[in-house]
Amino acid sequence: MRLSSVFAIGGVFLTAAILCLVCARFAVSVVEETSRNSVRNTLDENGMTWTEVDANGLHVFLAGTAPTEARRFKALSIAGSVVDAARVIDQMLVQDTGQIAPPRFSMEILRNDSGVSLIGLVPAAMDREAFVGAVEEAVAGEPVANFLESADYPAPETWEAATDYALRSLKDLKRTKISVDAAQISVTAMTESAAVKADMENKLARRVPEGLKLALNISAPRPVITPFTLRFVSEEGGTRFDACSADTDEARDRIVAAAREAGLTGKANCLVGMGVPTPNWAKAAEQAIGAVKELGGGVVTFSDADISLVALEGTPQGQFDNVVGALESSLPEVFALHAVLPEPPEETTPETPEFTATLSPEGMVQLRGRIATAAERKLVDSFARARFTSDGVHMSARVAEGLPEGWTFRVLTALDALSYLTNGVVRVSPDEMHISGLTGQAEAGSAISGMFSEKLGEGAQYTIDVDYREELDPVASLPTPEECEARIATIQEARKISFEPGSANIDADGSDIMDDIAEILKTCGEITMEIGGHTDSQGREVMNQQLSQERAQTVLNELRMRRVLTASISAVGYGESQPIADNGTEEGREANRRIEFKVILPVEIVEEQTTLETLEGTSEEQSDSDGASDGAGGETDDAAGEAEEGAADAADTGDGDTQEDTADEQD
């Protein structure tokens, strides 16, 4: 009895243990399934579909590859909001973002009267000390403040060319901001005059390196016009401006519109500048030009606030009086009017003394006519030799008595005016001065008119017939880079730069064509050009490339020997890679062995935000952020930023050691 009781009690306990184990396993399964499903559903609702969820007992395991570290942290936070955060086990990986992109290398060079400042981020491989030394040499000892920082990343291929261009530009610009990066160069500067501005823009655009874009913003102050002049002529020969000045663009448009109503046709050159005697200048000019129209013709001349109106000979006295009276009453208070109605000439007119100076296109000056005394004759001759070429002045004027008072002064004024022309003639008489000819200065007419008005006095009569020719302008007549390239191509169509077989030496017939090409390049100024060397396919490719490089370099050296500006000309060897004919024939191989001259043109772009502006904007944003951070809290997500890449492709122009290959192409 006693043994059976023990077995019975043991059986009860075993059964109870088995039931407890089964119930525990069931409870664990329920907890695992509930935790897994709850976390899985919540993550899916928040877009975390890349996560993998598993449960083992009370632990919840998160696996998968997160796009970023911030997304991984967010997944942990979401899972911790569903179950106890202590139960969440992180087994997630973060996607590899690859190599960190290099920063955007850029530099800003600021130059003003206080010195030069260098600001920006440059490659660590760049020799900053040498660059600062080159800047100090370029600005002739002005103080240089160096704020450059460096980063240890490879330098872009065009970085060296960009910094060299910036240094060359800095030498020519006294007040400037030059922004440099590997893809573009932006130059902002101020020049002394419009002519200097045009010359500087032309120079900077011509020498920009290949592979770089250029943005120019060069300004020039308005010129000071003294005296402020305007001369409007309406006569039988037509209607024109001998001189025109305005204080604003609006005033210029008003004056030109009034002149067109009075019969002006064609282009009107009206200079906008400073020095106007009154803001009512345009109003007075409109009224005076309108008076000339009502008179049927005449000449009106402004010299500051003095106005001289000369009617045409034969104008009715009554009409003259009415028009002049109305003009006098309507002019602004500052202006003073002197009106003249020429009297008809008498039947017998005594001989009028005259002095004539003629300037030939070759620079020879012929002086004829009358001079008051021998001493004044010597004075006029010395003045002419000072104004023109000393050996080119020929004096044939004679000494005569009875000349008007101030005759020599009028002669000297005439010679001064003649110096504005390339060729022409000026005639001096007691009552009038006439100058005509051609000039390469766009503002010569205005300058001569201002000189006559200032020196000859109120009411002086003079005629200016000066024609501006662009081909005589030393800046405007400069051929474009495309024209230079076309001229060189024309020469090479008839003749060819040839070399000794398998050598980089130009043969005996090549000297003449090099002379002609050098003369063309001397007239083109400083342009960015590439001399490309090409071969046929005979011989090894590496040797052909080296030979083509050496031949292109030889041509460049020949140009230097002929005193051609070659700072912006590069030599590149292309070997056999760019054939223009079939290498299977002798004629094709002959055509492929060639030297090509190619102009490299800049690409204009819109100027972007520079390094200094970026630093200023960053400083302002940091200040705002510091002010807003007090008392602020909440969840912060990290985000990886992408750096802007500024590298640009450039042609490889490396030179190799000179070698000859007997299997190379034969000229």
Strand and helix map with partners:
Elements: H1 2-45, E1 52-56, E2 59-63, E3 65-66, H2 69-82, E4 88-90, E5 93-94, E6 106-112, E7 115-123, H3 128-138, E8 144-151, H4 159-172, E9 175-181, E10 184-190, H5 194-206, E11 213-219, E12 229-235, E13 238-243, E14 245-246, H6 249-261, E15 271-272, H7 281-295, E16 298-303, E17 306-311, H8 317-330, E18 336-340, E19 355-359, E20 365-371, H9 374-387, E21 393-395, E22 398-399, H10 407-418, E23 423-428, E24 432-439, H11 444-456, E25 461-468, H12 481-494, H13 510-524, E26 529-534, H14 541-561, E27 569-575, H15 586-592, E28 594-599, E29 603-604, H16 611-628
Parallel strand pairs: 2-4, 3-5, 7-8, 10-11, 11-29, 14-15, 17-18, 20-21, 20-22, 24-25, 26-27
Antiparallel strand pairs: 1-2, 6-7, 6-9, 9-10, 12-13, 12-16, 16-17, 19-20, 19-23, 23-24, 26-28
Helix pairs in contact: 1-2, 6-7, 7-8, 9-10, 12-13
Tell me about this structure.
With 667 residues, the protein is α/β, with parallel strands linked by helices. Helix content is 38%, strand content 23%. The chain is built from 16 helices and 29 strands. Helix 3 links the parallel strand 7 and strand 8. Helix 12 runs antiparallel to helix 13 (510-524). Mean pLDDT is 83; it is low at 625-667.
